[in-house]
Amino acid sequence: LIHIVLGSLYCWANLTSAITSRIRVYQPETTYNDTLIVFAAALAAQGLTIFLGGILGQKFGASFTCLIGGYTLVLGTFLSSIATSLEFLVFTDGILFGIGLGICYTSPISCAIRWLPTRKGLVTGIIVGGFGCGAFFFGNL
């Protein structure tokens, strides 16, 4: 379930028109192409912090790691609702969301591999498949 929520990252294509329209109220020169940097920032932040999730998971456990990552992700999403500039949106919905995503990403996979050591490929595929399905579930909301 964690990866389904994390997969909401891929809903950016559905949200970009509404978000761009809101940012245009405050920065009329903003285009749809400009807002693509938010998605890129989220992916970059995820990639740069995914190792941190592994370190935190080993040191504090999967539950605490997912809690910290989840709080960071939700904080980024919440703060993006008050964004009035593209720069603030990049920080909140891009960087904070991506940091939370990166921290949460590894814990469910490492737990599943420990719990089912003879089915590592199967459980990893199911979990990562849940990440891809997140856009399907949240895209319809």
Question: How would you portray this structure in words?
Answer:
The longest helix is centred in the C-terminal third of the chain and has 30 residues, at 86-115. 84% of the residues lie in helices and 0% in strands. It has helices spanning 2-6, 12-26, 32-60, 62-80, 86-115, 120-139. The chain is elongated. It contains six helices and no strands. The protein has 141 residues and is mainly α. Helix 3 (32-60) runs antiparallel to helix 4, helix 3 (32-60) runs parallel beside helix 5 and helix 5 packs antiparallel against helix 6 (120-139). 35% of the residues are buried.
Q: Which helices and strands appear, and what pairs or packs with what?
A:
Elements: H1 2-6, H2 12-26, H3 32-60, H4 62-80, H5 86-115, H6 120-139
